[in-house]
Amino acid sequence: MVKGKKWGGFVQDSTFICVVIVFISLSLFSILFSCGTKNKRKKENLRPIKYMPVVYTAGERAQTFTGVSVAAVETELSFRVGGVLNSLEVNEGEEVRKGDLVATIDNIDDQLELETAKAVLRDMEVQRDASRANLARVKSLFEENNVSLSDYEKAKSEYANALSNFEASIKKVDIKQRQVEYGTLLSPVDGIVIEKRFVINEIVKPGEAVVVINSEDSIDVEVGVPESFISKIYKGIPVVVNFSSIEDVRFTGEVTVVPFTRQAESASYKVVIRLNQISKVLRPGMPAEVTFLLPTTEKYFLTVPAVAVNEDESGRFVYVVEIKEKNLGIVHRRAIEIGTLQVTGFEVLSGLKAGELVVVAGIPSLYEGMEVRLIE
Length: 376
Prior knowledge:
Elements: H1 2-45, E1 47-53, E2 55-71, E3 74-78, E4 83-88, E5 95-96, E6 101-106, H2 108-143, H3 149-181, E7 184-186, E8 191-196, E9 203-204, E10 209-215, E11 219-226, E12 238-243, E13 250-257, E14 268-275, E15 287-304, E16 310-312, E17 315-325, E18 328-335, E19 337-342, E20 345-350, E21 357-361, E22 371-375
Parallel strand pairs: 1-22
Antiparallel strand pairs: 1-21, 2-11, 2-15, 3-10, 4-6, 4-9, 5-8, 6-7, 8-10, 11-14, 12-13, 12-15, 13-14, 15-20, 16-17, 17-18, 18-22, 19-20
């Protein structure tokens, strides 16, 4: 009996101990899970920033000026003949393709003259055929000595005149036909209509531009370069072009025109840049920043990305990243001294070392010692 009671007590004690162990295990798991969740949420709530290293780079000195995009080819469409504008088939901002109908004029007089010329041509054709038949008949009689030589010569002369009149009538019909066709205006290029200068029922003179089309083949950028810098520019210099209205896209190009004289209305020279890329988002009239990439004699520069450099009343500075663990770091404000602008950024004169990481995106609201989430 005593042993049985002991065994029963042992069972009860073991059950109690198991319950306690399970309770403690669940509590520990709950605490660990809660800590992990809090750490995860903490990481997610940290301010994300992007960073880049400070590096040495081969020297290409850069200089930036403002410019504006223009159509590389601007075509003014006009009629070769005058008349009343009968139809205008396009609108401003509309795309057109080569051969599309743009406009027509009411050239009824030319059409009447064409019909008259065709009627004359038919008469001349009848006269040519009649004189040719007569010449064949007279020639046969002349060979049989039934007509005189003068009759034969007269028949040949009549046929020559009829043939000449027929050929002249063909040319006249061709001219009148082209004059009628001149009353129809077709687009010579693919492009976009940027301006309409007439409306229907207005009288259009020969050579007056009815519409203006910008070609879609390419876009140029015109840049006003001051006289102090123009001597360093020559054809073929590579450039980088940024448009404020097109984010996260850098266009490349090269200098195609360097003027000999400056613009009359300013002290700058209008340099023309031809872009290498063709993009539907580009339009004439967009403001642009053009960076000329000029070769230099120095071999290497320690450079920091231009977007990383900030300035306030204390001077220029960057935020340097100290990596604590994966995707986590602390930023420190660092005063720097910079030199000229290179292709990869500003030349570093002091304040940074090669390999250090600087913040290039997410800079607003940063402060000394702030913990951040890192994005390469």
